Amino acid sequence: MGRCTMMQLMVFAILFVGATKRAESRLDSSFDKRRRSLLANGLGLTPQMGTADALVSTGLAKLGYKYVNLDDCWGNYNRTPEGNLLGNEITFPSGIKALADYVHSKGLKLGIYSSAGFRTCSNRMPGSLGYEEKDAKTFASWGVDYLKYDNCYTDGSNVTKRFPAMSRALRKVDHPIFYSLCEWGWAEPALWGNMFGNSWRTTTDINDTWISIMWNIDENEKYAKYAKPGGWNDPDMLEIGNGGMTKDEYIVHFSLWAISKAPLIIGCDVRNMSKETYEILTNAEVIAINQDSIGVQVRKVKKEGDLEVWAGPLCEERRVVLLLNRADKGSSPMTAHWKDIGIPSGTVVEARDVWKHKTLKEKLTGKITATVAAHSCKLFVLKPIH
Ligand SMILES: *[C@@H]1O[C@H](CO)[C@@H](O)[C@H](O)[C@H]1NC(C)=O
Ligand SMILES: *[C@@H]1O[C@H](CO)[C@@H](O)[C@H](O)[C@H]1NC(C)=O
Ligand SMILES: *[C@@H]1O[C@H](CO)[C@@H](O)[C@H](O)[C@H]1NC(C)=O
Hints:
One of its GO terms (biological process) is carbohydrate metabolic process. Helices cover 26% and strands 22% of the residues. It has 386 residues and is α/β, with parallel strands linked by helices. It has an 8-stranded mixed beta sheet. Strands 10, 11, 12, 14, 15, 16 and 18 form a 7-stranded antiparallel beta sheet that branches. Helix 4 (132-142) crosses helix 5 and helix 7 (247-259) packs parallel to helix 9 (284-290). It binds 2-acetamido-2-deoxy-beta-D-glucopyranose (3 copies). Residues 204, 207, 209, 211-212, 215 line the site of one 2-acetamido-2-deoxy-beta-D-glucopyranose (NAG).
């Protein structure tokens, strides 16, 4: 659902180049075919990254957080007599176009919000159902770069009709607009969303609890194979910095979202982040995993009770592996074997601990082992040595 927090600043990131031969050949066979099933607006080649204000002064923008997103409640209660949406005149006295110009002047991009219904979820402003073309034109004329499209106050018709209608309208305007579908995973949007949008929510709304992040990321994982450059699974925005979880739990949250190629949209007040929050959100090595050019969402490859191994490929023949201890108490030694991670047996690798920012001294053959505390994880990037 839309939230009535006003400014969710967001951000796009750097597209990494340099997929290796192996990665390319793996993709070659299906890549063109996969591209053809995508929304043809050229956006979302890596997952979108975002947050709330002060992106430039904090340095977050430089790391890739480039979208400044308004969520629900940005508009007036009613349309104008001509039937147009209008920014709330008290909150945005200069209008949304002026806001977009300002955001662009900072090198950032502006996102906006609407609903595939008669009203938005807050019921404080009109939705876009039946007004798709008019509203898409309005957004484009303001220079808006991103639309989150919610699913409240509908006419009861199928989401597979209402969400594509806005997609067609956005493609008719001459300004590219990233299209973020938010129907909460009801109609399995991973199965059809990539033809119409750049990302689709796979789950119910997130909240600032361990239960919520575990629930959402598990649901999201079921659709891993549908994520690819141009279209991403979206388990909802980040709760890091909102105070409901421990530092270790927030590190798990950021790690799982990063490896799942989820949007990184900051949901805390970035004008007033603690050092701990800042260190998590600005971990460039973890962000690089999220923005990796081959765009493969990591899978859960092994589960023994509360102990899980998540692993998947990165560019340049590297692999990312997450050792996750979901237990409420106690530390556990954990091991992931090359066969779990998808590394050919006999391969010698160098392991980088991306939270410690250290490369392990010993080279590894066959497995990686670590002790993982309760509600914590270890995250490694493994690079083969030839
Ligand atoms: C919506 O449409 C999809 C695809 O056409 C169909 O599989 C699904 O059953 C429909 N859902 C409802 C609630 O009508
Ligand atoms: C938080 O999310 C969990 C998992 O989806 C849900 O069970 C719980 O009711 C939510 N809590 C609130 C306060 O919304
Ligand atoms: C900044 O954060 C601290 C603690 O996280 C809080 O006590 C304080 O009220 C916040 N300040 C503002 C201006 O929001």
